[in-house]
Design goal:
This protein is α+β, with helices and mostly antiparallel strands. It has 19 helices and 23 strands. Strand 9 and strand 10 form a beta hairpin. Helix 16 crosses helix 19, helix 17 runs parallel beside helix 18 and helix 18 packs antiparallel against helix 19. The chain is elongated, with a radius of gyration of 42 Å.
Length: 626
């Protein structure tokens, strides 16, 4: 066939970029170009007069036959490239995706079909890789955004779900906006200025900046910015990758704080390896007292400064720590300075971890003065020695109490002051009339914090008056319900969601001759504590009874309770139970209550089970003694 035009036809076949396959009515290949033959891994002559099905994978042949029959019925030019699962089979059996366009024609009264075939393996791989990368962007835990550098103000044109989750902003609040909205009013940061310069100069930049979520929450953003250029070298986009490192920042700040304490402590602090016993770090106070430099100490062990210990004796001393049967040990020994002089010390030793390495931390107290004083007293009488030991213990307790007091005051004042400062700053943002509710919110916050500070100051003043005996009680006759109504009215403002105070029954006829304001202070303290240390949806029960001589108050909550080991100290000034250390409080309230009750010939007791709640019982004389 094609005898007259064979040469021209062959030239045309080889000129076509696609693979060309011509079949007759019986699907027998009558013509094929080199492109198609190579595509399927054959020589051209191998395909001539072969059925077309040798180029179709077996599992797709039935579908292919149906498609061809449909095509022949229509007798028109059409493309099969949009049909699913169009595949070819190479000579070696390899299956690969193709696009095929079909055309029918007639020569010498004989029908033929010509297929233009394209191997789309590379395109499919590209589409797959693109889909995978897109899926990766969508699934990334980092916030990712892309901006359009060719548009004014570099607006955001893409962001992944993690960005929304991180910032709390919606799609409408993000798209087509410059990402500076994350900076809120905190734009005077050196890193922001450097970032803007990097963007202006079209270079990559990595920094850590303060950003703010939609609800105003601060988060530290580890930000990486990368420019994207086109083939002409023009920057078309910037990619920003965000990582919330707020927790890491907090840990770093805590670490720095502890490091500062370590270095500035006047006590000697040594850290040494649990295996080799070599010193890893020694604070400045220890270096001054022992006389060695840090460089010298790093090649030494505790045995080099403890003349009374051999290695075997020291291992014996710390064996309980090695076996982890105790948390820490304490013992007295002697240290030898570089100069050769010795001095007595008290050693507090505990096992810890430094990274993956087991270490010991030793806090050393120079007890030279105490020892000298003790030895002097021992030469006198045993009683004086006991008095000295009592004094030393009291001094140690006093130092701990002072330290706890200063720490508490710093924390309790700093937290509300910080809240006041933050609310004051945020108030400047809301200047419009329709933002009045936001202003009111921050004004309420300021008022609440000021009220809390006032309460703390009143507590301190009460402590001072009680200590100096300057409290002047004012006794009057009053109805108990009047006091209780005032206390509960104020307490209701502090209730959490679902909390409720059960008002006592049958108290309308109860009267007292006592200091009305002091009783109000006592009841307020106990009821406020019951609310503060209880969770939402709990009850605070108040029961009051009166006999001929006394009035008994019982305030019961279903809160966190008091750990058994802390109960003996609960009325000590500035003491706070272990399970409330992270909550606001001064540790003064119950001490003030107890002191007032004792002055009024009353008493206070309690029963408490951790995690189940507490019941405080007050007994107060009906009539005060004038």
């Amino acid at each position: 066939m094609f005898q007259q035009d064979q040469e021209i036809f062959n030239i045309l076949l080889e000129s076509v970029a696609e693979g060309v396959i011509v079949v007759d009515d019986h699907q027998i290949i009558v013509e094929v170009n080199n492109t198609a033959a190579k595509m399927f891994g054959y020589e051209t002559k191998e395909l001539l007069k072969q059925p077309l099905n040798i180029l179709i994978p077996k599992k797709h042949q039935k579908t292919h036959d149906t498609q061809v029959k449909d095509f022949l019925k229509e007798q028109s030019h059409r493309s099969m490239k949009h049909r699913p699962d169009i595949f070819g089979a190479k000579k070696d059996g390899t299956v690969f995706p193709i696009e095929a366009s079909l055309s029918s024609f007639k020569i010498y009264n004989q029908n033929f079909t010509m297929a233009l075939v394209i191997d789309i393996t590379a395109r499919k791989d590209f589409e797959y890789n693109l889909a995978m990368k897109s899926k990766a962007l969508q699934s990334s835990s980092n916030g990712i955004l892309i901006t359009d550098a060719l548009k004014k103000d570099n607006p955001i044109i893409y962001f992944n779900p993690a960005f929304t989750e991180l910032t709390g902003y919606s799609k409408e609040e993000i798209l087509n906006k410059n990402c500076r909205f994350l900076q809120a009013d905190d734009r005077d940061q050196d890193s922001i200025k450097e970032m803007r310069l990097a963007i202006k100069e079209g270079r990559s930049y990595k920094t850590i900046i303060r950003n703010y979520k939609k609800d105003g929450t601060l988060f530290w953003n580890d930000l990486s910015i990368t420019p994207i250029t086109n083939n002409d070298g023009i920057i078309t986009n910037f990619i920003g990758i965000q990582n919330d490192i707020t927790e890491r920042k907090k840990l770093e700040q805590e670490k720095n704080h502890l490091a500062k304490i370590f270095e500035e402590s006047l006590n000697e602090i040594y850290v040494f390896d649990a295996e080799s016993l070599k010193f890893i770090n020694v604070n400045h106070g220890a270096q001054i007292n022992i006389g060695y430099s840090l460089e010298e100490l790093l090649s030494m062990t505790p045995l080099d400064i403890k003349p009374d210990f051999s290695q075997a004796k020291f291992k014996k001393e710390i064996e309980h720590l090695e076996k982890e049967t105790v948390d820490k040990i304490e013992f007295e020994t002697v240290h030898r300075r570089k100069s050769g002089t010795t001095y007595p010390v008290n050693v507090h030793l505990q096992r810890s971890k430094l990274g993956n390495k087991a270490v010991y931390v030793a806090i050393i107290l120079d007890i030279t003065e105490q020892k000298n004083y003790t030895e002097t007293l021992e030469k006198t009488v045993k009683i004086r020695t006991e008095e000295l030991q009592t004094a030393l213990a009291a001094e140690k307790d006093l130092n701990e109490l002072k330290t706890k007091f200063l720490s508490m005051v710093s924390h309790e004042f700093k937290t509300p002051l910080s809240g006041i400062l933050t609310s004051t700053m945020l108030l400047r943002k809301y200047k419009l009339t329709d933002q009045q509710d936001k202003r009111e919110k921050h004004i309420d916050t300021i008022s609440d914090k000021v009220h809390y500070l006032n309460t703390i100051l009143n507590d301190f003043l009460s402590v001072e008056k009680l200590e100096k005996g300057k409290v002047n009680y004012k006794f009057t006759n009053f109805k108990l319900s009047k006091v209780l109504n005032e206390v509960i009215y104020n307490a209701n403002m502090l209730l959490k969601n679902g909390q409720k105070i059960n008002y006592p029954e049958n108290i309308d006829d109860i009267s007292l001759f006592q200091d009305e304001k002091i009783l109000e202070l006592i009841l307020s303290n106990l009821i406020y504590n019951a609310i503060k240390y209880s969770s939402e949806n709990t009850m605070v029960d108040i029961n009051i009874s009166q006999n001929e001589t006394s009035t008994i108050f019982k305030i019961k909550d279903n809160g966190i309770g008091i750990p058994e080991k802390d109960q003996k100290n609960i009325f000590n000034r500035y003491f706070r139970a272990e399970n409330v250390l992270l909550m606001q409080g001064t540790g003064i309230g119950l001490n003030i209550v107890k002191d007032h009750l004792e002055n009024l010939n009353g008493s206070i007791t309690f029963e408490s089970i951790e995690h189940k709640g507490s019941t405080f019982t007050i007994e107060l004389p009906n009539k005060a003694r004038l």
